[in-house]
Structure formats: C-alpha cells, structure tokens
Amino acid sequence: MKKLLMSLVAVVAFATLNAQSVTPKNITGIVKDSLTQQPLPQATVALLEGTRSLANTQSTETGSFTLSTITPGNYTLTISSVGYEKKSMPITVKSDNTTIDLGTIWLITEGKQLSGVTVTAEKALLEDKGDRLIYNAEKDASNAGGTAADVLRKIPALTVDLDGNVQLRGNSNLKVLINGKPSAMMARNLADALRQMPAHLIKSVEVITNPGAKYDAEGAAGVINIITKKGLQGFNGTVTASGGNMNRSLGSRLSLRKKKIGLSLALSGYQYRNIRESEVVRSAFSNGSLVNTLTQNNEADNLGTGGNGELSFDFDPDSTTHLNFSANVWGGDFPSDETSHINLVDHTGQEIQRFRNVKHFSNPYGNGQLDLGYTKSLKKKDQEFSLLTQFSRMPDNYFYTTDRYILEEISYRDKSTNYSRNREYTVQADYTHPFTFNGRKDTTSLKLELGSKAIIRDIGSEFNVEQSLDGHSEMVPDPSQSNQFDYTQRVYSGYTSVRLNNQRKWGLNAGARIEHTEIKGNFVTSSTHINTQYNNLIPSITLSKGIKQQTLKASYTQRITRPLIWYLNPWINQSDPKNIYTGNPALKPEINHAIELGHSINGKKGFSLNTSLYWRSANNAIEYLTRVDATGVSISKPENIAQRKAYGININAAGQPNKNWNLSGGTDVRYVDLNSVALQQRNNGYMWSINTNTSYKLPKEFTIQAYASWYSGWISLQGSNSGSYWYGLSAKHAFWDKKATLTAGVNNPFQRGIWQKNQQSSASFQSESNYFFVNRSYRLTFEYRFGKVSADGGKEGKKIRNDDSGR
C-alpha cells in the first residue's frame, strides 16, 4: 500500500511541474451570417486538439467570443449554429502570442451553397474500431420501448437467451459497465438488470474482447460497455413514454450547459413482465441404480417495478482543467413468485410425495454511487493526468415465504430473510505521456500510459430462516440455516503500457498489469474464517498492420474472474424445496488466456467486414454444478470445474447499399470443451449464432426496420440447452419538425412464446427440463425533444472504471 501511495504522489508531482510551465493565451473573433451580415448570437465555438475538445464558449448578442487560457500548440477551431453549416479552421498558438484576433467569421446557411448538394453522413449501425465493436443503438428504431436485453440481442458475438442470460463467444464470465464504470446492479444479477433498463436510455454499446493493460483484469470473456445518452450544448431535454404488454417505461432527461459549467438530470421509471412455464423430470441414482424420479411443473407471472436517476455536474475553470461530479441511484423490486406441483416416486413407481408449493419471492434492491474526478491537460498534445474517486453502496436483499399444501391443506411453512450490503471505495490515478520520433521515412508516435488503483469492497450478509413444521403453529427460527457473513476484498493494482503507431500503419499496444488481491471472510455465527491473498501479473499485446483499406491484427491477453459475494454467500435459497441454490465461500479466481487473429476491410458505401479467429482457455473455470441426493433434492452451487476451452470464428459485416438502406449482421461458430478431472466428467460440442438487422428510410420521415437472431443453444459441463430464435419488426415516424417520434414495434408476432429443452446428467442424476417463455410483445413509444441543441458541450468527465473500459 505504501508503494501505491508513493507512486500516486510521484505522478501528481510530475503532472504539477509540467502544468506550471504553461503560459495561457486568448483567441477572439466575431461570428456573422454570410448573407445578412448580421451578428449570430449563441453560436457554439469549440477548440479541438485532434478529436478532443479543450475549450468551448458561445457567442454574445453582438456575435463576439473569447476563448481564454489557451496553451501554445496546433488546434482546430469549429464554429456551429442551428441552421448554418459548421465551419472549421486550423489555429496555431505560439509562445509569443498574447491574443489571436480572428476578425469576422462568416457562416453559410444550410442548403444555400451554389451548385452544391448538402450530404449528411450518419453513423453506421455497426462499427468496427479495431479494439472494439460498436453498436449504435440510438440509430436502431426497433429498440424504442424495449429493454437493454433487447438491445444486446442484436449485437454479433453476443448471445442472449430467452431468460436474459448473456454470453460473449460462449462465455458468461464477462463484465458489463455503464458509461465506462462498474454498476453493482449489473454485477448482482445481469439478466434481471438488463430486463429492467429501458432501451431509450442507451446511446451505444461497445464489445471489447481483448482489453489491454489499462483495463482492470476482471471479466474473463471481455467487457461490454453500455453508453447512455447525454445532453449537448445549451438547454435541452427529452421526454419518452412507452407502453406495451410486456414492458413499459416513462423517462425524462434535462441538460443545461453554459460556457464552463454543465448540469444534467435524468429520471426514469419502468415495469417488466415475465411469464414462464416449465416441466422437469429428474431421476436420482445411487451406485448406478435408480432411486427415485421427480416430476415438477412450475408456473410464474411476475411484474417488476423500478426506477433510476442521475445528477451530474461538471466545471472547466480553464482550458486545461476539468472537474466532474455525478450521483446516480437505481432501485426497485423484482418479484419471482411461482407455483409448483411436485410428485416424487420411488424406483418401483410407488408415490413417495405429492404436494403443491407456493413461493413468494421478493428482491428489493438499490444502488447509490458518487463519482468525483479531476483531469488536467498538460503542455504536450495528449499529455494528461487524472485523479478519480468513487464510492458506491448497494443494499441487496432477498426475502421469501413458501407454503406447502397436501390435498389443499397447508402442511409446512417457512420464511427466509437475507439482508446484504456492498460498500465499495475506489481511488485511481492515470498519466499519459506522448512521444514523437521523426525518421527519414516516416514519423512514429508513441504514448506511454502509467496508472495505479486501489479498490476496497466491504460486503456482508445476514440471513435467517423461520419454520412452521405443520403450517399452523407459530414459526420458530432454525439456527442451522442462519448465519452472519462479513467479507472484505482489497485489490491494489498498477499498470504500464505503450501505444505505438507510424505512418506505415504499423500499430503496437503492449503492456502489463499487476494486481494484488486480499480476501478476508468471517462467518460470525459459526466462527469460521477465510483469509487468502494472491498476485496476478496480466500481460497483453496487440500488433496491427494497415494495408490500404484493410487491417490485420494479432493479440494475446489474460483475464481474471474473482468470485464476488453473489457466488461466495452461503445463504441457502430453499424457496423451491426440491431445487436448492447456495454460494461457495471456497471458490478460487478463474484465469483466462485469450489469443485472437483478426482481419478487417472497409470498402465503399459504408461496407465493412471483420473476421476474427480466437482461442480461449480458462483454468479453475467457475460454473454452477448440481448434485441430487437420495431424497430427490438437487443442490446447485458455483464451483471451480478445472478447465474450459473454446476455438471459434466470428464474422461481422455492415453496409449501406444506398443512402436510405442499412444492413448489418454477423455469425459466431465455436467448439467448446469443458473438462473436470475431479468430477470425472467432460462435455464438448459446437455452438453457433446468427444475427441480422436491416432498416430503410421512406419518404415523409418514415423508417421501417426488421431484425432476427438464431442461437444453437449452450453447452455446460453437465448438459446442454436447445436453441432459440428472436425476431421483430418496427416502424417509426418523425414529426413536429423532427422533434417528436412515434415508434410501433412487435417482437415474435407469430407465436405466443417458445419452448426450450435443457438436459443435464452426472453420476447422481439425469434430468430433462422443458421451459416455455412468453416472448410475443408489442409496444408503442413516443419521444419528444425540446430546447436548443448545438455542438459538443465540453469535455467528457472521467470516472472510476472498475473493469476499466479504457476509453
């Protein structure tokens, strides 16, 4: 810890010395209409260094503007105003300049150029940025009124099953971030969280399969970064309302930015309905002989309700300094009530048990998070220092009651409470230093990145069970099913990496990250303790070469998955008496090795094709395993199964046959091999997925869209799951001068739902389960945008990124 603090002090001191050598300058000018020659008030003036905004302001009533405290260097000045064409010009600020007066700058009215045609280029629905695949969700009309799970279903390389479980290239051990920072809600239960996040909040989604050293090592399969919509310059806002048979939402976002200060507020409420049925037939064995057979039928129809809000504030005291603060909260309750009819017979077919189990399961959850960040741009271009802090607190509680009936007479009742907490403290420092080398044949640019980070997680859980053995008498506590669990995890890390590019289109990103983890657990009631620590050195390297419109790349990295409280908590969920779930405090971290070879090509009409060959190998792979005892009760908990390997190919393509038509899609085919020597069990096979999406713009501001996806099913150590499909149609109309849109959408209109089959087996059991998910849905979404919107409203505030997105 002392070494970490010393490195932070050194980085801060180095950054301060560099900052003291900068002498600020000013840039002034006047913006006017080229036809009327009248001043243009409230025109947005921004100074860019590359693609990064360093300073911005708005012109006054007389059209004048001033950008203050500018350091020497080469920049681009952009001037924009609603109804006018954006103007850009190069600006060089020298050390002997005090003020640069640009005089009068004339803006041309849109569409008034002589002998010219104005062409507006839009982002493609799918973009390949080399180290990440970007899906621009806001360009997809069919997302209106849906959920985050609906959005992720349309991204190649991802598979989302009918219950919302996500895999990236066949691996579910991934990290999902919100705006580059972790969300405790996403870590708690990803499937539930995605169902409860309205799609209208999402701007884009980034899928990163081989994160570099700057990223946290968490997330064996990779990183998914969900980027939400933000307001632009001036005062503006949106109101969105969506209604349908399966989900509905209401939300609003307000944004105000003037000169150096920005303020935004977003609020949203939502509901999601889940209807399912299932039938399970499971046989238990002992020494190869049949002991009993369980038949169970389940029915569930649940409606979850929740909301979220975020308040953010940022301040630019000068052109090189940025301060940002944000506070956000998530909360709600997603019940999982279920009625089960259970029948157990022995090996001769003689009935042992028959009863009806009624479960009332509640999961009130919440998450509050505070971020405070400081970013300083130093003398050189791309030279930057940032110091970021974060605090989050997440109460995550589980309550259930079960009533057991025999011949409609109650015979047993129990009640369980599990109060859990998760407090997380993080501090992070990053420094980037650029270098430029001028050779005889080309120029090479190099960026050195250094950083350190500390995360402290304070987690606890208190769980109790009360029982009434006859269903009528007073409930009494059961000490054997009650405990108090305290858990602390500390992760200290440091990284260094270099990014090299030259004019011959060679690129290298290489680095290493070291992480030290300390874990302490204490079962207070039973006086049992856990105390362990370990170090991980995580190397990463990506080499690329551009050849005209093509790029070749090769990469290698390691990833780690640490078992968090939701895997470690020994609380026993017995709400279904024949299917019990619990955690495993003895879990070890999962280490994943990843190699990838890639090729991409960008052609005419927005065409792009990306192909990747990949290999994944995980030691101590974590997977839920099930065992069945002689009474027909199954117990499932996460365990280290030894080894998981995957070999595959991923192909993604996108294009625009004409200016109104967009096409995109992809496929992923992989061979998966899972092996556990300890359990003497192995399973392997091929898995595949196909995804396609198309949209077409019609006259009079109408857009139609269609999408479809097919999955072969999943393979686990103990079994497999059958395939599924998902498809949808939508139509959108923009009106009121494009400030309002109305979108009608339908998913899977030709059947009420879909059946899936799951087969599992081990030495102690064989089971076949058939699940029916209601997935036919329809919705109508209205969105209205108001206020004055113009160009970039300032710098993007940096925040803590546990499982850093590296943006």
Automatic annotation (TrEMBL):
Subcellular location: Cell outer membrane
InterPro entries, alphabetized: Beta-barrel_TonB_sf (IPR036942), CarboxyPept-like_regulatory (IPR008969), OMP_b-brl_3 (IPR041700), Plug_dom (IPR012910), Plug_dom_sf (IPR037066), TonB-dep_rcpt-like (IPR039426)
Entry annotated with the keyword Transmembrane: yes
GO molecular function terms attached to this record: siderophore uptake transmembrane transporter activity
Main subcellular location of this protein, as a coarse class: membrane
UniProt keyword terms in alphabetical order: Cell outer membrane, Membrane, Receptor, Signal, Transmembrane, Transmembrane beta strand, Transport
High-level lineage: Bacteria, Pseudomonadati, Bacteroidota, Chitinophagia, Chitinophagales
Stated name of the protein: TonB-dependent receptor
Family named by the database record: Belongs to the TonB-dependent receptor family.
Membrane topology, from the record: Multi-pass membrane protein
Source species of the chain: Flavisolibacter tropicus
